[in-house]
Every structure is written in C-alpha cells, then in structure tokens.
Amino acid sequence: MNIVLGVGGGIAAYKSALLLRLFTEAGHQVTVIPTDASTKFVGVATWEALSGRPVTNDVFDAVDQVNHVRIGHEADLIVVAPATADLLAKAAGGHANDLLTTTLLMARGPVLFAPAMHTEMWQHASTVANVATLRSRGVQVLDPAVGRLTGPDTGPGRLPEPEAIFAAAMALFSGDSAPSVPVPSATVPVTDDVESPAAAAPEAPAAEAPATGAPATGALAGVRVLITAGGTREPLDPVRYLGNKSSGKQGVALAEAALAAGASVTLIHAPMEVPAPAGATIQRIETALELRSATLAAAATADVVIMAAAVADFRPASISSGKIKKRDNVDDPVITLVRNPDILLEVVAHRAAQNQQQLIVGFAAETGDDQGDARSYAEQKLRRKGCDLLVVNEVGPGDSGAERVFGQDTNQVEILSLDGASPVQSGGSKREVADAVVHLIAQRLSTG
C-alpha cells in the first residue's frame, strides 16, 4: 500500500517517526511530507532515513513529475499526524500553499487526521467547526488523547499513541473503522502534545437484541459507547507511583464485545497489560484526575458509559520533584493522601443535570468482612452511585490462594440493577463476561 504521512508542526512530531516505522515494518511504502514548521522538531534526514525515500515539502521540487498532483493520486491512504489546529483549518478551508495541502486536495483515497494541540485550541469554536466540516466530508478525525501536554498543563490534546493511529489507519483502509461523529461545542478530550477533535457516532436506534445468548452483530449498531479501563497511577516522585493490580483485560474485552455488536467505541484507558483493540477511538491517561477530565468530556456525547477502570481512591497531596531518598539517620517519609473525585458519581450527576438519555454501568471490586458480604456492600454502592447497572466481582485470594480477578483471564460477576431487576450471574473468560454485559445493555436499550 502507498501511504502518505503528513507531519504537522508540533512537538508530538517525534511520535510520527515511530508511526512511520510501524507502517514500513508492515510492508507499506511511505512518502513523508513534513510541513516547514515540523522540520524544526524532526529534520528531513530522519524522515528520509526511516522511509528510504526522498522527502520534500516544496511544490517546485521535481516539477517534471508534477508532485503536487501525482502524490495525492497515487496514495492509497493519507495520514496526517500530528494534525495541528493550523493544518485542520487549512484542510477544512481547502488551502493549497505547500505540498502537503495540495496533496490533501488531490487525495482519491481515505484520509485520517490525528490531532494534537493544547486543550484551549482543541476546544476553540474555530477548531470544533473545522473538525465538523472535515468529518462531514467523510474524512476521519481521531479524538486526541487526554494527558500531560507541553509544559505543566494537562487535558485533552495529546497525540494518540502511534500504535492506536496505526490501528485506526489500517481499519480505515480496510473499511472497518467506526463512523465519526460531530464534536460537541466546547468539550473535547485531548491526549498527547498537540491537537485533535472528538468523534461521535450518528444517532441511530439500537437494534433489538436476541432474547438469549451473546449479542448478535448489530445489537448496538449506531450506539456510542464510552468505556474506561486499566488502573490509574498517582505519582509520588519521578520514579514511583501509587497504583493497583488492574490489568485492563476486562475493559478491553468489553470494548471488543461492543465493537462486535456494532457500537462506535471510545476507550479511555490507564496503563494496561494488554493492547487496546483496533477499531476503537483510544485515549490514554495515567492519573485519576486525567481520567476524570477525559471521561466527563467524552460522556457528553455517549449513549452508554461503562466505567470499568480501577480508579485510585486517593493520591499524594504533593509530588516530589526529585526521587525520595532512603537515608540512614533520617525519619521515614510521611505521605499525606487526598481523596480523588468520584468519577462515576459525577457522570451520573452530569446525566441528570443535562437530562440525557444515557445508560451508565459501574464496576465494583468488593470484598466482605465481619460487617457484611461483598453483595451487601455492592448494593449499598449501587444506591449511593445511582448508576443503572453495577457489575460486581469479589476480589482477593481464592480458595487456592491465587488472585481471583486481577490479572486473570477469567472472571465471575454478578450484575445488579438499580431498578430492582433480578441480579444476572455470569462467569467464564473475560470476553464471555463482556458479552453478557453487552447483551444486557442491548436489552435495556431496545426496551427503552
């Protein structure tokens, strides 16, 4: 496949070198077209060495080959990463003042933009309108990731990881990518170093789910599903963090099951032991505060929210700028913790405030004690949180002493309903559990 890789002028351009390597190692021929500004971050020599092809952005180079026409005509796929706010504006406005913008105008195949920019730029009305314009023309614009940006600030705007862009590009070329959706006026999650718009799927009624068994393909056709996964990490110093045992396996299984049922899936994930699935819009985060920002923004346009991430309840009150040293004759450090926000509770409250028709699913990893069993604690949590469904699993060592849930390939859950419906039991592989959850969601949507 002939791929054109356009590189915008943002600090995230270095990640595009990794994306180029993924394309070439998969056997594709890649022509890199950097903007002039991007060469201040990554030089032409790097692109030529990694692609094995000459690199230019001057329409007057190789005039005899009419590059500004030929390259776009010959491209099977064009990927722009990072796509800055300026590049999105030029593409939406049909500008043609360099080799990259003229190539975009000549494109005959699919085009994918991976935005990266600061949050304010991503959420500016001009960028929102430009993204909506591009999507209305059939161009795929990925959502940016949420996380640390250039400087001390954090928010939506980071470039998605190269692996996620590669997966989206391959899915787009094969025709398997999920449809893009309009961006809400002022809330768009970002993740990396530069700019990108949020996607959503067009409104469509949920197809009726079968009465029994795993959901049939199309049971969630047209439904926008937001899933959180993985375990958040709260930094103590540059090398240490507070975390948990979550592997992300159940969250990824849920994303795969929702995709198989025809949903448009956004997966916001903390660190995981498994790769994110192809076909989903991916946003990577680290901390609970980053997860909160990304989730509240993405939930604004979601029909279903599944909160499967293991969120740290507390974070250090302060983060040491240097590694905390272990020294003799010095008292051990005392770490003060502060409470993290309750993201699930906020999502439920936001739904009520906006009068949204939205199904919200929570997850609870519970243990019993002398005051009650795991079920009783989960029922209290369900009433306190106010979500529609709560997927409960009892964690900790099993009879054999081995961990029952975290990091395992199997799971045993009970799904409780706020409306008092009988609990649903499911067990087996984490994909089987995910199919059961998605099937129940499809039933709920089909019955209104």
Automatic annotation (TrEMBL):
Q: Which GO terms describe its molecular function?
A: FMN binding; metal ion binding; phosphopantothenate--cysteine ligase activity; phosphopantothenoylcysteine decarboxylase activity
Limits of the DNA/pantothenate metabolism flavoprotein C-terminal domain? 220-443
Q: Which GO terms describe its cellular component?
A: phosphopantothenoylcysteine decarboxylase complex
Q: Does the keyword Translocase apply?
A: no
Please give the name of this protein: Coenzyme A biosynthesis bifunctional protein CoaBC
Give the span(s) annotated as Phosphopantothenoylcysteine decarboxylase: 1-224
Specify whether RNA-binding is a keyword of the entry: no
The UniProt entry, under PANTHER family, shows:
HOMO-OLIGOMERIC FLAVIN CONTAINING CYS DECARBOXYLASE FAMILY (PTHR14359), PHOSPHOPANTOTHENOYLCYSTEINE DECARBOXYLASE (PTHR14359:SF6)
Q: Which family does it belong to?
A: In the N-terminal section; belongs to the HFCD (homo-oligomeric flavin containing Cys decarboxylase) superfamily. In the C-terminal section; belongs to the PPC synthetase family.
Q: Which pathway does it serve?
A: Cofactor biosynthesis; coenzyme A biosynthesis; CoA from (R)-pantothenate: step 3/5; Cofactor biosynthesis; coenzyme A biosynthesis; CoA from (R)-pantothenate: step 2/5
Region: Disordered; residue ranges are 182-214
Give the gene symbol: coaBC
Under HAMAP family, the record lists:
CoaBC
Q: Which residues form the Flavoprotein domain?
A: 1-168
Top-rank taxon of the source lineage equals Bacteria
In residue numbers, the region (Phosphopantothenate--cysteine ligase) covers 225-448
Q: Pfam families recorded for this chain? A: DFP (PF04127), Flavoprotein (PF02441)
* GO process terms (BP): coenzyme A biosynthetic process; pantothenate catabolic process
